[in-house]
Amino acid sequence: MDRAKPDAVGENAASEVAIEGASQEEFEADLKSRYVGSYTFYMKLPPASQEEVFQDYRDGAAISDIRKKIMDRFLKR
């Protein structure tokens, strides 16, 4: 069988890495363009929670973990 599909893991791996040296504004723009639902909830968080999420992003957390944290903070877990 001919497998013409590219490796999905390789494609997703690059998209889950934090942009090194990104500002909070750049993080927010990236979140908005790729995960509008998560961005909507993120923008409803208090500034301290937004900063906490951004620091996790800067520290290299996976986007799935960042998105989970946004929802946890929004739901006050």
Summarize this entry quickly.
This protein has helices at 8-15, 24-34, 36-43, 47-58, 63-74. With 77 residues, it is mostly helical.
Structure description:
The chain is mostly helical and 77 residues long. The chain has one domain. The radius of gyration is 14 Å and the shape is globular. The N terminus is likely disordered.
Strand content: under 5%
Low-confidence stretches: 1-14
Q: Which shape, going by the Cα principal axes?
A: globular
Q: Specify the number of helices.
A: 5
Could you report the average pLDDT, rounded to the nearest whole number?
Answer: 84
Count every beta strand, where a strand is a DSSP E run of 2 or more residues. Answer: 0
Q: Key features?
A:
66% helix; 77 residues; 5 helices; globular; single chain; mainly alpha
Topology overview:
Elements: H1 8-15, H2 24-34, H3 36-43, H4 47-58, H5 63-74
